[in-house]
Amino acid sequence: MSESINISNFNYFLPKNLIAQNPEIERSNSRLLHIDSGKNIHDLNFCDLAEILEPGDLLVFNDTKVIKARLKAQKPSGGKIEILIERILDSNIALAQIKSNSTIKLGTKVLISNIIEVDIFSRSNDFFLLNFSENIAIVLEKYGDIPLPPYIKKQKDNSDELRYQTIFAKNPGAVAAPTAGLHFDQKILKKLKSRDIKMAFLTLHVGAGTFQPIRTQYINEHRMHTERYDIPSSTIKSIKDARLKGKRIIAVGTTSARALESAALNSDNYSSENRSIINPVCNETNLFIKPGYKFKIVDALITNFHLPKSTLLILVSALAGRDRILKAYNHAVKYNYRFFSYGDAMFVECQNEK
C-alpha cells in the first residue's frame, strides 16, 4: 500500500507560534487530545489519562537517558564546528554528525576546549567516525550539552538538563528524548497505580536520525536510520500477563512502539495466538512503520504531535489512519495545542482490526 504514497499526503499547516519552546511548569499539566476507536476526538488534560485507561492496561515506557551529545570544537584553521554524537561505539570511537561552514576533510584533527583531540577519520553518508583522545563518556559529561531539537530556538538553560529527560531515564545513550514520556510525573504515576494501570520498560536509544527529513517523493523509497533497543524479560512477562487478561498494550511514544513491533516481526519470537513477544530482545531496528502495516503488539499509543512529512507522523497514521490523524492535527491547530517535544500529547487508539 505504501509504495505509491506521496510524502505530500502527510503535510499540514502549523503556525510557528504553536511550536512549544518551553515545557509546562508541571510535567502533567499538558493537554491531551484523545482519538478513540470510534473516530471521535476529545479535548482532555494529561492528568485525565488514568480515567480513559482500563484497570490492567499496560503502559510500556522507554527508559533511555539523553546524553550531553552536542560538543563545540575548533579546527586547526581556527574555524568552529559542532559535533553531535549519534552513537558511542567504544570508549574512544563515536559516530557523529558534524556542522561546519566548510567541507570536512577526512584526517582533520579538531580540539575540544583546546584539550581533547578528535580525529575525523572516516565517513558514512551523513555521519562521521571520530576517534577521541580521551574517554568519550567523560568528555561528554564535562564538555557536552543536552542536544535540544532544532525547532526549539530558545537559549538553552539549566532547566533543560532536567526537563528534556523523563523521570525514569536510567540507561544513557539517546541524543533525543522519548518525548511522550516527558508528561509523566510522580503525581500521575501515583494516580495510574491507584487505578491498577500496569507499567513496564524497554530501552531504545533515540538517534539524531529521528530529525532527518524524508527526502524522497514516495515514502517507500525512504530508508530509516538504525537504533539500538533492548526489551527485558520482565517486560515480556508483563505483555503476556496483560494479553491473558484481555488488556491493551499501550506504547508510550513512537520509540516504544517501534521497539515492540520490531521484536515481534521475527516469527520465531512472536506468538500470534495471544499477540505477545516470546523472548527478550537486544537488537537494532530500522523499521519504518507505514500505512498498511498491521500492528502485532501495540493497541494504542501515547505520543506528542510530530513534524509535517515526518516518519513519526507516518507511523501514527499507520496506527490510526491518515485521515483521522490529519483531522486531529487540524483540530489541534485550531484549538492552539502546543506542538513537538515540549508540547502537548495525544492518546491514539488503533483502528486496525485484531
UniProtKB/TrEMBL annotation:
Superkingdom of origin: Bacteria
Localization in the cell: Cytoplasm
Catalytic reaction annotation: 7-aminomethyl-7-carbaguanosine(34) in tRNA + S-adenosyl-L-methionine = epoxyqueuosine(34) in tRNA + adenine + L-methionine + 2 H(+)
Assigned keywords, A-Z: Cytoplasm, Isomerase, Queuosine biosynthesis, S-adenosyl-L-methionine, Transferase
Coiled coil: none
Listed transmembrane segments: none
A GO cellular-component term linked to this record: cytoplasm
Quaternary assembly: Monomer.
EC number(s) from the headed UniProt entry: 2.4.99.17
Family annotation (InterPro entries): QueA, QueA_dom1, QueA_dom2, QueA_sf
Protein name: S-adenosylmethionine:tRNA ribosyltransferase-isomerase
UniProt keyword annotation of S-adenosyl-L-methionine present: yes
Single GO term (MF): S-adenosylmethionine:tRNA ribosyltransferase-isomerase activity
Pfam families linked: Queuosine_synth
Annotated family: Belongs to the QueA family.
Task of the protein: Transfers and isomerizes the ribose moiety from AdoMet to the 7-aminomethyl group of 7-deazaguanine (preQ1-tRNA) to give epoxyqueuosine (oQ-tRNA).
Pathway: tRNA modification; tRNA-queuosine biosynthesis
One BP annotation, GO: tRNA queuosine(34) biosynthetic process
Main localization category: cytoplasm
